[in-house]
Design brief:
The complex is a heterotrimer.
Chain A lengths: L1 E10 L2 E11 L4 E5 L6 H9 L6 E6 L2 E2 L4 H6 L1 E4 L11 H11 L6 H10 L4 H4 L8 H15 L3 E5 L7 H16 L3 E6 L2 H7 L2 E6 L2 E7 L8 H10 L1
Parallel strand pairs in A: 3-8, 3-9, 6-7, 7-8
Antiparallel strand pairs in A: 1-2, 1-4, 4-5, 9-10
Helix pairs in contact in A: 3-4, 3-6, 4-6, 6-7
Chain B lengths: L1 H14 L1 H44 L6 H7 L1 E4 L19 E4 L26 H17 L4 H6 L1 H7 L4 H33 L5 H32 L3 H30 L5 H14 L7 H16 L11 H37 L5 H13 L3 H29 L11 H6 L10 H29 L9
Antiparallel strand pairs in B: 1-2
Chain C lengths: L1 H11 L2 H52 L4 H5 L3 E4 L19 E4 L17 H6 L4 H17 L4 H6 L1 H7 L4 H29 L7 H28 L3 H30 L5 H17 L1 H11 L12 H37 L4 H13 L3 H27 L22 H29 L2 H5 L1
Helix pairs in contact in C: 1-8, 2-5, 2-8, 5-8, 5-9, 5-10, 5-14, 8-9, 9-10, 9-14, 9-16, 10-13, 11-13, 12-13, 13-15, 14-16
The chains are: A alpha/beta, B mainly alpha, C mainly alpha.
């Protein structure tokens, strides 16, 4: 569903992503682990087509991002670290607007229902977003992914700054989406969440994927130890 | 998709308290200035009507006198105000309001309203036109500078584009939404204008509507230019702060610096003649002929010889009419040619300067708009010239009637001849025919063309700015 | 002081600031050059008028050396009343492009409404106004100051550095006012330099006080705008918000309030109607004309000492008597006319403190000698001079006295008397105090707003 082939991006003389090969199938949650500046966000930007790769290709459900970024974007949903919404609009108005932009205009009752499924009460959905907490914004992001029926989901540090309860609820939603067949790429440095949620974990360092582990491989191991060893290697 | 974006932009703007405040202020200024201007224009017109009536009375009751003396007594005519001066007073405060019509001389319009006002006039007029030329563009800039740069900063741009929206759709939708916001803001003001126009019925009414149409087109184009440019700049800059700096600079250059700069630079290269030189040349023209080789004395002597020959007489006393009257007619004709030449040259120069300023609108659209706006409102120099020319035609007709009376009714050598009220009544009151709409469009042409060019360029820039839209500053 | 130096250095390492300073210097230079050329033109036209007058006087003197003259031969020729060029023309063009600096005064036209000899000018240019130094100082100086100083701490607040700075125990008011001064000083130095440069472009002597006061007006006006910048930074949560607010305040003070005041003045004290004045004076003339002979005989009854032998009025004495009668009828009308214009200006004088831009502009044109008051003084003296011309010739005509060589020294001559120094000084200092008060008010508000508690919130 999400596929990267020898994906490479340079900024001036620095290589941000270095011939990255990646393949994420429907139903998978892939956690891309790495320190700040390792190339996680650049990878996501390349999948979104916000940056053009210097070589290699990114594909979403077979569509090359570089060739047709708009068609590729139509197939995915994106939830950044901080879901940005229009503060003068309510949650449901934001969802309405964004899902229309994504080409999925929906009835108001449907929108409320999607927000409810993401954990937002009707009362909260009618409030202006200027008053929302970070967790509530993430819920609107999830609802948007539901509304557009995205086949792939890109997450950029989705849980950083969330309190444990909100973080837990967010994970629950993610797993549900994966169960429904969505392919999920999650850039994070939250080891705990990666271990809990991911079906596969990749460790990225200076733009290179230095190691990959399946859920089973790390089941009984100390992820933090492996991660720190990899970084110092 | 574009309409959806435009709709959101529209709703978002109206939910912004600061925009509502600015919009309310602009609207109040527009309406207040319109109402006060209406009151002032009506008062000025009332004063001029009263003065015209009094002058007519003076003229009719001047008593019996030689018809040529009546020519010297003369009459003052007053410039009527243009109905659309309520919207844009243009150069009205800076041109004379009355012309003294007398024998032998073509006088300039005298008494500039600004001369009888305080120096505050020089800060400019608060008219609906000025509010639309300067304040509404500022409102547009403040509304639009963050249109895309601000969304990039807040992160919503990533989200919107991640949904598969094309940058071009986004940019056009934004511009459309902002344009609709401004249009709705101005709707009440336009309604009031239309209401006032509708009440100003009469023979001029159709012309007024055509002029109002020209105004509406020019101002819409001008504001659209600002919307397109603001969105384009916002799409092309890295931060909203940079966008704001650039747009405010453009605004200040266009609205504050350009009018004075263009006018000063153009007058340096196309100077207006000095008054003393102008008068001396005209005097010389009257005395020595336009080419300087045709002295007036000689021409009049030739004229006397030819007239005598034509009637087969040797003495002017034997002519069947008062020769003095004929000489007056002839010398008015000679002087008329000189006046036409020199005033024509002066007015052509002033209009050339005005046209150059309108064309300088290539650098600052407000210059082009101002020119078009004054032309449509009937408050530019072309309209003033129309008044001056009409007044002069009236003078010539009026002096001709008086001199013909002298020629036909006064016996030669009769210094006690006096005409009376019957003759005075034959001379009509001066009435200014409004300049045809066609000519108003002609006067506005340079400005309108420059605005059209700007609009195309601005829309082109808007279109291409989508290609420069970067989500990630790299 | 060391902080000030440091802030100044910080400011000057930014390339954008050099661009601002260079642009400002350019506009100042262009403004001076433009105003100076207007001053030169005024000088040239004054010289021409003086030459013309001198030449005519010489001819009359020479003719009188030869023989006595009928006063009609001399009185018919207009005398030019001349307002000498302004003391500091390069500072402000003011009203000098609109109001005449010359009036032709002829005995026969004393009661005709004066038309004034203003230069031929394109009305659009009068409408646009000149790009003179006063324009640069009143309109553009604030823009350049705000461009240099709009972001005193709003940007730091946006990025979060402000909280760190405040955590250092800095007094924000002191820190921000130093910052404002450091950023404003280079701009103000250029502005003051321009005023001094404009001051050198005059042949007038003793203009030191005027130059000094002009520089003071500019500095105080500049301080007002720096205080506005500080105040704005007390509220704005981002650099863009600060720029927006500063720009809006500029529009309010420089564009909206002056034009609003203009409209209010026009509505409260409408300009009197020139059209009606013209028509009324013609009506008065017609009336007097009809009673011409009657007027002359009653005049001679009142002034037997002027009556010619045989009490016979000739054309000339009749004309004079009619003209006197028109004057009697029109004087109250004209006084009302002048009074209502004065009312307008008094209202402006009172309300100029609504915007420092108005006060500064009035002060600068007053100092340049191109403002309302100097032109008004000229008009008043012209009116008085018409009386002098009348009183000089009138007895001579009535008594049919010829002009002789002895009369040369007592010919009416117009000599403009400059307004008493204390009067313009009072006006300018009042304006200056007003601007300073507004600046202080803005500064106090800013100081109140720039408390650490309010800033960190």
């Amino acid at each position: 569903m999400l596929e990267a082939q020898k994906l490479t991006k340079r900024f001036q003389d620095r290589v941000a992503v270095d011939s990255l090969d990646l393949r994420i199938e429907p139903g998978e949650i892939y956690a891309l682990l790495g320190p700040n500046g390792a190339g996680k966000t650049t990878t996501i930007n390349l999948f979104l087509g916000f940056l053009t790769p210097d070589s290699g290709a990114a594909r979403v459900a077979g569509t090359s991002v570089a060739e047709d970024p708009v068609a590729a974007r139509r197939k995915l949903a994106y939830i950044p670290e901080m879901v940005s919404l229009y503060p003068r609009f309510s949650g449901v108005e934001n969802l309405d607007y964004f899902s229309r932009l994504g080409g999925h205009a929906r009835q108001h009752t449907e929108l409320y229902e999607l927000l409810a499924r993401s954990g937002l009460t009707r009362e909260a959905a009618d409030r202006r977003v200027g008053t929302y907490s970070k967790g509530m914004r993430q819920k609107v992001g999830i609802a948007l992914a539901l509304a557009t029926g995205a086949k792939a989901l890109l997450l950029d540090e989705p849980t950083s700054g969330l309190d444990p309860a909100a973080s837990h609820e967010f994970s629950r939603m993610l797993r549900k989406l994966a169960k429904d067949g969505v392919a999920i790429l999650m850039a994070t440095h939250d080891l705990f969440r990666a271990r809990e949620d991911a079906s596969r974990i990749g460790i990225i360092l200076n733009g290179r994927l230095v190691a990959q582990y399946s859920r089973d491989e790390i089941k009984d191991q100390d992820l933090e130890k492996i991660y720190l060893e990899r970084l110092s290697a | 998709m574009i309409l959806g974006i435009a709709r959101k932009e529209f709703v978002d703007a109206w939910r912004d308290g600061r925009f509502r405040l600015g919009a309310a202020l602009v609207l109040v200024l527009l309406l207040v200035s319109g109402l006060l201007a209406r009151q002032q224009v009506a008062r000025a017109q009332g004063e001029r009507d009263a003065a015209t009536a009094l002058e007519r009375k003076n003229w009719l009751e001047q008593g019996d006198k030689n018809s040529h003396s009546a020519g010297h007594y003369g009459v003052n005519v007053f410039k009527p105000t243009s109905p659309l001066a309520v919207f844009d007073r243009g150069i009205e405060p800076f041109v004379g309001t009355s012309v003294f019509l007398e024998a032998h001389r073509q006088n300039q319009a005298a008494f500039l309203p600004a001369q009888d006002a305080t120096a505050m006039r020089r800060f400019g007029e608060l008219s609906a036109a000025v509010a639309l030329q300067m304040l509404v563009p500022l409102l547009i800039v403040l509304l639009a500078f963050g249109a895309l740069a601000g969304e990039r900063e807040s992160g919503t741009l990533r989200q919107i584009l991640s949904l598969g929206v094309r940058p071009r759709q986004l940019v056009l939708g934004k511009a459309l939404g902002l344009g609709a916001t401004v249009a709705v803001l101005l709707l009440p003001a336009a309604g009031v204008m239309a209401f006032l126009l509708a009440r100003a019925a009469g023979p001029e009414a159709t012309g007024l509507w055509a002029r109002a149409g020209g105004l509406a087109l020019s101002y819409s184009a001008y504001l659209a230019i600002f919307v397109a440019l603001s969105v384009a700049v916002s799409a092309s800059t890295r931060t909203s702060r940079t966008a704001l700096t650039i747009l405010l600079s453009i605004w200040a250059l266009n609205c504050i610096v350009a009018p004075r700069l263009a006018s000063d630079v153009i007058h340096q290269s196309l100077p207006t003649p000095k008054l003393a030189e102008f008068e001396a040349e005209m005097q010389k023209g009257v005395m020595e002929g336009l080419d300087g080789h045709d002295p007036r004395n000689k021409r009049l002597a030739d004229f006397q010889r030819d007239t005598l020959a034509k009637h087969g007489k040797t003495r002017v006393e034997d002519l069947p009419f008062n020769f003095q009257g004929l000489v007056m007619l002839e010398s008015e004709r000679i002087a008329g040619e000189v006046f036409d030449f020199h005033f024509g040259k002066l007015w052509d120069r002033i209009q050339a300067q005005d046209r150059a300023v309108a064309l300088a609108g290539v650098g600052a659209p407000m210059l082009a708009l101002r020119s078009a706006s004054m032309a449509f409102a009937g408050t530019d120099f072309a309209h003033h010239r129309h008044f001056a020319v009409s007044a002069e035609q009236h003078r010539r007709e009026f002096v001709r009637v008086l001199n013909e009376d002298l020629m036909n009714n006064a016996r030669p050598g009769d210094h006690r001849y006096a005409a009376g009220r019957a003759l005075w009544e034959q001379l009509p009151v001066f009435r200014l025919e409004p300049l045809p709409v066609h000519d108003a469009w002609g006067a506005a042409r340079a400005g309108v063309l420059v605005l059209a060019g700007w609009l195309l360029a601005a829309l082109g820039t808007l279109f291409f700015s989508a290609g420069r839209l970067r989500v990630v500053n790299a | 002081m060391r902080t000030l130096g440091l802030e100044l250095r910080l400011f000057l390492v930014e390339r954008a600031m050099w661009v601002i300073l260079a642009l400002f210097a350019g506009t100042l230079a262009y403004g001076i050059a433009n105003g100076a050329s207007v001053g030169l033109a005024a000088r040239a036209s004054a010289d021409a008028a003086e030459k013309e007058t001198f030449e005519w006087n010489r001819q009359v003197r020479e003719a009188l050396e030869r023989q006595a003259l009928d006063p009609r031969q001399v009185a018919g020729r207009p005398t030019i009343a001349l307002l000498p060029p302004a003391p500091l023309p390069a500072l402000a063009v003011g009203q000098s492009d609109l109001l005449p600096a010359q009036e032709a005064i002829s005995l026969w036209r004393l009661e005709k409404p004066s038309e004034g000899r203003a230069e031929l000018e394109n009305p659009s240019r009068l409408l646009a106004g000149r790009f003179d130094l006063a324009f640069v100082l009143v309109w553009l100086l604030p823009l350049f100051l705000l461009a240099a100083a709009y972001d005193l701490c709003a940007g730091d607040r946006e990025s979060g550095t402000l909280r760190m700075v405040l955590a250092q125990g800095v007094t924000p008011w002191r820190w921000i006012s130093l910052r404002a001064l450091a950023r404003g000083t280079p701009v103000l130095i250029l502005a003051v330099g321009a005023v001094l440069a404009a001051g050198t472009m005059t042949e007038e002597r003793g203009v030191g006080t005027r130059i000094l006061l002009a520089a003071l007006v500019v500095v105080v006006y500049g301080l007002f705008w720096l205080a506005v910048a500080a105040l704005v930074n007390g509220f704005a949560r981002s650099a863009a918000a600060a720029a927006t607010a500063a720009g809006s305040i500029w529009v309010l003070f420089v564009l909206v309030l002056p034009t609003l005041l203009n409209v209010v003045v026009e509505s409260l004290h409408p300009s009197p109607s020139r059209a009606e004045l013209v028509a009324e004076s013609r009506a008065a003339a017609a009336e007097a004309e009809k009673r011409g002979n009657e007027l002359v005989s009653s005049f001679y009854k009142d002034h037997p000492e002027l009556a010619p032998a045989g009490m016979q009025a000739d054309m000339t004495s009749r004309m004079l008597a009619v003209q006197d009668e028109v004057g009697r009828a029109m004087d109250p009308v004209r006084e009302r006319f002048a009074e209502s214009i004065l009312q307008q200006q008094r209202l402006v004088d009172l309300w100029r403190f609504a915007s420092p831009a108005i006060a500064a502009h009035e002060a600068l044109t007053d100092l340049a000698g191109t403002g309302y008051w100097r032109h008004r003084a000229f008009q008043e003296q012209v009116t008085a001079f018409k009386g002098v011309v009348h009183d000089y010739y009138s007895p001579k005509f009535h008594k049919r006295q010829p002009l002789t060589k002895a009369d040369v020294s007592s010919f009416p001559r117009f000599e403009y008397v400059e307004e008493d120094t204390s009067r313009w000084k009072t006006r300018v200092t009042t304006g200056l105090i007003g601007i300073a008060a507004l600046a202080a008010l803005a500064a106090i508000l800013a100081a109140f707003r720039l408390s650490p508690r309010k800033l960190a919130a």
